Amino acid sequence: MEIIHISAECYPVAKAGGLGDVVGALPKYQNRIGHIAKVVMPMYRTKFLYNNDWELVHEGGTYLGSNWFRYAVIKEKSNKLGFDLYLVDINGLLDREQVYGYDDDTERFVSFQIAVLDWLNSWQHKPDVIHCHDHHTGLIPFMMKYCYGYQSLATIRTIITIHNAQYQGWMGWEKSHYIPWYDDWKTGLLDWGGSINPLASAIKCADRVTTVSPSYLEELMNSANGLENLFEFERGKCFGILNGIDNEVWDPETDTYLVSNYNAETVEAGKEENKEHICRQFNLDPQWPLFIFIGRLVGEKAAEILPDVIGNGVERHEGRINFLVLGSGHKHLEAELLRLEAIVGKNFSCYIGYNEELAHRLYAAADFLLMPSLVEPCGLNQMYALRYGTVPMVRNTGGLRDTVIDIANVDGKGYGLIFNHAEAWDVLSSIDRAMGWYFEQPGILDGARKKMMAIDNSWENSAHHYISIYQ
Fold it and tell me: What's the CATH number where 71 sits?
């Protein structure tokens, strides 16, 4: 079976969030189980582009509305990612350093989708499945079926995976001329709430819809930023498949970023060495438990409660605690965390920005990971934490619910800490529980680490689930 993944992100080429991690791993595992999976994405001007060798495989031209544009498709020569990687270049639109955040993002991603279909139209053979990811590729199922210029693609099956339904790619009807000539009777398949909604269109037009965890699919029936009724109506073709992680990239026994490698048998000593290194780097005391937060400093992650959690956590535990934050987002929150660091610097430090190497080292060094997310369709950070023997402390939502079992679980299989509210008081209560483990019942922490590291959250199982959906 030949599968074409079309996405705005793919790690390590360009990544803004979990979407990049998924698209960078799933195709590799699908290839390993005997299929042909390829990735097509925009040609951003990233380090990966300049540090690797490419070959030109196609040049073409087509229209965005009344504007003619040229595009080129290049392929990475070495197959170093474990799959064929294709980049689509459109001068003036995709030749940017960042993935998102530009005023013309609508034009950028609509033109990208049109260029991809124009290229696929020229193929001598047809792939079996087009796998679209999030709203940036959400118009593709509609265009394949109903745009007159792509009728040769109409019989190819399509699937849309929703990584985050909060972002839907809305565009006004005044931009409908961007979409190549289509059957006007099908206009309703583009519309939702009076605007063109690419995500809603994909849910209507794709042959299958998946979300990145079973619990997130159920949540979308009740909270989907306006698409609740659509999810309920299309329930029959919707499936929740839990994301996996790349166990080769995230392996404490072989991770080259770590100061000291370890496995489940040597986890205590290994984590201790990594913790001492991180604490020296950030001027923290390694004798105290280390709580970390890694992620975007935005409302979805409930990051606005972090200053209260950290300030009150240090005070109520009389300085016998450490916090470390790695992330970026809202500028006012970044500034607030930096001010707090100046006040309680011996117990708290932050790194504003993102650093892949530091992220790996923090998972290895930390005792506990904080994830108070308001919305977490799947979540990968908690899986990385499990892999590295770091206890996840998560809110009871989305994929966090599907991957973390509370230590108080009656059957004795628990290993994490779960709370119900994205509020400082509830997180602090969980921190109190964690501190009790650390100082009064260290055997529980030791046992939890070994349980966590034995869990297999790799892409192997998820890759097979996707193949079943395709078939």
Answer: 3.40.50.2000
What are the mean pLDDT values of the chain's consecutive 10-residue runs (471 residues total)? Answer: 98 91 95 97 97 98 97 97 98 95 97 98 97 98 97 97 96 97 95 97 98 95 95 96 92 97 96 98 97 95 97 96 96 97 94 94 98 94 97 96 88 90 97 91 88 93 95 96
Q: What is the largest CA-CA distance in the chain?
A: 70
Query: How high is the pLDDT of residue 139?
Result: 98
Tokens of 209: 């819809």
Q: Which of 154, 227, 244, 253 is nearest to 456 (CA)?
A: 244
Same structural domain, 169 and 88:
yes
Amino acid sitting at position 234: E
Question: Domain span at residue 306?
Answer: 267-453
Residues 172, 195: contact at Cβ < 8 Å?
yes
Question: Is the residue at 253 inside a domain?
Answer: no
The upper half-sphere exposure of residue 471, i.e. CA atoms within 13 Å in the direction of its Cβ, equals 8
Residue 464 and residue 414 in one domain: no
Give the end-to-end CA distance of the chain in Å, rounded to a whole number: 9
Together in a domain, 333 and 241: no
- The answer to whether residues 279 and 392 belong to one domain is yes
DSSP string, 340-386: HHHHSTTTEEEEES--HHHHHHHHHH-SEEEE--S--SS-SHHHHHH
Helical (H) or strand (E) element with 326: strand 322-327
Three-class SS state of 280: helix
The rounded distance, in Å, linking the Cα atoms of 168 and 166 is 6
Within 154-223, strands assigned E span 157-162, 191-192, 195-196, 208-211
Total residues found in the chain within this entry: 471
pLDDT of residue 410: 62
The answer, yes or no, to whether the previous bond of 12 is cis (omega within 30 of 0) is yes
Q: Is-contact 379 398, C-beta < 8 A?
A: yes
DSSP 3-state assignment of 88?
strand
Q: SS3 for 43? A: coil
Where does 297-355 have alpha helices with state H?
Answer: 306-316, 331-343
Q: How many domains does the chain have?
A: 2
- One domain for residues 69 and 130: yes
Here the tokens at position 294 are 């890694």
Same domain, 235 and 271: no
Euclidean distance between CA atoms 160 and 166, whole angstroms: 15
